[in-house]
Amino acid sequence: MNNLFNRKYIIQGVFILMGLILLGTLFYIQILSDKYFLSADRNVLRKIYTYPARGVIFDRNEKALAQNESVYDLMVIPNQVKDFDTAALCRIIGIDTTRFKRNFNRASAQSRYQPGLFEKQLSIETYAALSEQLSRFPGFFVQSRTIRNYPDSLAAHFLGYIKEVSPLDITNSEGYYRSGDYIGKSGVEKSYETLLRGKRGVVNMLYDAKNVPKGSYAEGRFDTAAVSGDQLISSLDLKLQKLGEQLMKNKIGSIVAIEPATGEVLAFVSSPSYDPNLMVGRQQGNNYMELLKDPNRVFNIRPIMGYYSPGSSFKPLDALLGLQDGVIDPNMTFNCPGYFKVGNHTVKCEHVDGNISLRRGLARSCNTYACYVFQKLITQRKYANQHIAYDEWQKKVRKFGLGGKLGIDLPSERDGRLYDAAYYSSKYSKYWGYSTVLSLAIGQGEMDATPLQMANIMAIIANQGYYIKPHLVKAIGKNHVIKKEYLVKNYVGVDQRHFGPVIDGMQDAVNASWGTARDSQIDGIIMCGKTGTVQNPRGKNHSVFIGFAPRDNPKIAIAVIVENAGYGSTYAAPIASYITETYLKGSLAKNKQAQAEWMKKQVILPDPPKPKVKPKAKLTDSIKDTTAIKAKPIQATK
Question: How does strand 57-58 pair with strand 232-234?
Fold first, then answer.
């Protein structure tokens, strides 16, 4: 009996306790806690996302390359839209009814209960006019954001552009991006997206029955502030970049300039280019499609995507390998009769130089000398056969950055092209040797490099044996953080003592009266360089120059490629000289200013492709056609 009595009170106590818990929870929800009200009262309360300003991008002297300006997005919650004057809204924001229906249907397809983008990037003038009338349009509200502005309209390929996120971007963002958000799609805008975008904030905005905002709920206690993105200090020199783009106007090619001691990229010119402001605003899509129509591919980032045979600019590298392996010394001479011949292979030389050694061989860009060096490298007796010798050679070349990505802080960098011995064995079986790949001796044949790789080779020679990974952003955030990888010296396996003789030859190429780049001398500065004339199977040869200056304590290493421009001394070398002198002296000498202006006005573009015209079909007898078809194999066997 006592047990039944005790059990009754226990059960009653449990029910009383549960009731108290429920009452307490209801009291907390309704009286003490406002967060449940925030999630329930959707009719008067909306979450307005506040978008942070993207981080500003500066040049190396902290001049703004990319900054921000305010725009306003018109948002809609389809389920809250009631009858209103559609034509009035269209008139205020400058669209027609067809676009209104398309925008509304798109937002409804995403969600009828959540805010969706209706019309993006309204100007401040349109926003002001709309704000006065917004109460007439239930379900619509305005959300502010910033878009990019490029004050100097430069460095489009370096900066890149931002676009509205795609469904794939949203899926891959682990919940960060929402429809209508923007994301970096190319350039540093893409590679530094997570730093530049900042952190989104939320304002819990109260609206009255007339769709008029009444301020932040609970005086903003439940709001979170947006955090602006980190600023980036790039390595680019704005003055140098502007000059480079002017010199390359109406030309196809690239300029890459590097500070050898740090690996910082001083100029990053890809031509043809475009105004980055065209990729901003409501006309972005139309502008993008127009730029795509350019036959010279303006979106191609040539400094890291363009493939060019290095040509004669490869010769200093091969000479360094010859010195390191001991197959040549600076005083060893070879006879140049105007060509190098082995078996059925003949490589012609521009000059008949007679007996020629390293220094003059580089200054004169002697193909014969380069071929002898390559021959000696691949026929060394310490290797069991030439295939093994070649494989060791290409591995040493790769240490200079050819045949693989350098890891610059931009998307879309390409490897270049350099094959190993296995490739040639698969192509020629065992019947190949140095004569098969002899064109590599002069930087042609099955070898391609990007302009960045060529400039980096010059940085290696300037540093006499190492390079710092090339990069375009030198510091991040207000504390100017530098990535540790940009402090590491990457050695290439050539002793420092071997660089002097090679640099002597490069000095003479520019400064000697008989050098190939003598017209590019700089008063008071010893510039060391190498011209190249690269064969182009699709047209006129490409003009190439690589170099660095000054000889002692170098401050700039540079590579210039001008497509279809002929000899390296004609266009590439003078352009490199103007860039180098401007960087080192602050301006061009008066006697060169007119030359530079002449260069800016030169137009060197390939002829536009001729439209293909289909030949008119001939109406012939079908029996004769059949006879002709049957006759073709017979003719082929004769």
Answer: parallel
Q: Other CB atoms closer than 10 Å to residue 371's CB: what's the count?
A: 27
CATH code assigned to 45-233: 3.90.1310.10
State phi, psi for 542 to the nearest 5 degrees.
Answer: -90, 145
Span 557-582, pLDDT tens digits: 999 999 988 888 889 999 999 999 99
Residue 595 is predicted with a pLDDT of: 93
Place of tokens 């003719």: 635
Residue 432, CB half-sphere, CA atoms under 13 Å: how many?
19
Q: In CATH terms, is domain 238-601 a member of 2.60.120.10?
A: no
Distance CA 167, CA 250 (A): 38
Q: How far apart are CA 133 and CA 84, in angstroms?
A: 12
Mean confidence (pLDDT) of the chain: 87
> In Å, what is the CA distance from 56 to each residue of 202, 228, 247, 318, 410?
22, 9, 27, 43, 17
For the chain, the C-alpha Rg in angstroms (whole number) is: 34
| Model pTM score | 0.83
Identity at 178, one-letter amino acid code: R
| Domain edges within the chain | 45-233, 238-601
Q: For residue 143, list its beta bridge partners.
A: 73
3-state secondary structure of 374: helix
Alpha-carbon span 559 to 256, nearest angstrom: 5
Distance CA(163)–CA(180), nearest Å, equals 9
CA angle in degrees (0–180, nearest 5) for 220-221-225: 65
189 vs 156, 183, 192, 207, 236, CA distance in Å? 11, 8, 6, 36, 15
pLDDT tens digit string along 54-80? Answer: 999 999 999 999 999 888 889 898 988
**290 CB contacts (<8 Å, ≥6 apart)?**
none
Look at the block and give the residue holding tokens 């006697």. 591
* Structure token digits, residue 623: 């029996």
Residue that the structure tokens 């009286």 belong to = 31
Q: Are 505 and 517 in contact (CB under 8 A)?
A: no
Separation between Cα atoms, residue 577 and residue 592, nearest integer Å: 10
pLDDT digits (tens, 9 = 90+) for 511-535: 988 888 887 899 999 999 998 887 7
Q: What is the pLDDT of residue 212?
A: 66
Per-residue pLDDT tens for 20-55?
777 766 666 555 555 554 444 444 677 777 888 899
pLDDT at 615: 53
Q: What is the pLDDT of residue 626?
A: 34
**How is 186-207 classified by DSSP, letter by letter?**
SHHHHHTHHHHS-B-EEEEEEE
**What residues contact 359, with CB distance under 8 A and at least 6 apart?**
330, 501, 504, 505, 508
Does the structure show a pLDDT above 60 at 110?
yes
